[in-house]
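>> received
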Amino acid sequence: MSGLLAYASIIAAEEAYLRQKFGAQFDDYCRRVNRILPRLTGFREAIAGMRFNWRRLVTKEYNTFFWAIVHWLVNALAFWLGFKAVGIDVPFSAANFLQGIIAIGVALPSSPGFFGVFEAASRVGLEVYSVPGRQAVSWAIGFHVLSFIPITVMGLYYFARLGLHFSDFKTPPSDKQ
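>> returned
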């Protein structure tokens, strides 16, 4: 429920900003377009002449595909090594499966850093492999904290290195049009 309230607050803030920036033009847009549920009439006609080309996608986006696969495999390896460290004996495929479960879990509105959601998704995913809940949550807390800390420290380092300050984010940047 809090996620819906947060979503509604974000919509209200965005609409206030757009109304201030575009005035009557934005009000006219709001009368014609539902901002919550899209109207799909005419969608079929809009895409009728389009043809999806797998060969073009692969040749244009091979780097993206390659690095996405590398990223998922390296992260799965980190999960699997973490499993071994705490005595969870599951196949490597369990690490890949768990990544998918965690990705779905953290896609839901939650706390910053996904604390709680990451652990719950880990427990659910590892229960499929008959891992006891306490052991699954122990792994999840350890892995989450031990991976969260270096990422946060690196982020803070570059935040300072770029000369940024938290006060820089209190007001939106001015339009330079």
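>> The mean pLDDT is 87.
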